[in-house]
Amino acid sequence: xxxxxxxxKKYYFxxxxxxxxxxxxxxxxxxxEELLEILRVHAKSAHGIPQIPEDLINKIKQNIKKM
Length: 67
Prior knowledge:
By secondary structure, this protein is an alpha+beta fold. Helices cover 45% and strands 16% of the residues.
């Protein structure tokens, strides 16, 4: 049981995985929700996307990797 606490997976995502011409990546997020929140801030500041559309959220979720 203790080993599971230390081997918890982290989440990873990079913008280029969904076709964006962007080198931004998120490494080591503890949850998908945390990763998406980081991406919401990034999308607004770097890409001028004030709110990520649902279809893009789905595409992002399909490209999140677990490390």
